[in-house]
Amino acid sequence: MAFSSNLNWIPLWSALLTVFVTRVNGIDIYLDWNVSLNDGLIPLLEDQQACLYHKYIPGPLINATTDDVVHVNVFNYMDKPLLFTWNGIQQRRNSWQDGVSGTNCPIKPIKNWTYVFQMKDQIGTFFYFPSINFLKASGGYGPIRVNNRDNVPVPFPQPEAEFDLLIGDWYSGDYKHFRKMLETEESAYDVTPDTILMNGMGPFIDSDSLWYETFTVEKGKTYRFRISNIGGTLSLNFRIQSHTMLLVETEGSYTNQITLNSLDVHVGQSYSVLVTADQNDADFYIIASPKLLYATGIAGVGILHYSNSTTLAGGAHPSGPDAFDLGFSMNQAKSIRWNLTTGAARPNPQGSFSVSNIALSQTFILQSSRAEVNGQPRLVVNNVSYFTPDTPLKLADHLTNGTGVYELEEFPVQSVNFDTLYGTSVVSGNYRGWIELVFQNNMDDMDSWHLDGYSFFVVGFGNGHWTPDARNTYNTIDPVARSTTQVYPHGWTAVYAFLDNPGMWNLRSQTLKNWYLGLQLYIRVYDPDPNPAKERPPPENLLFCGLFEYQSLAPARHRHLNH
Question: Which residues form the Plastocyanin-like domain (predicted)?
Answer without folding.
Answer: 47-150, 165-308, 391-528
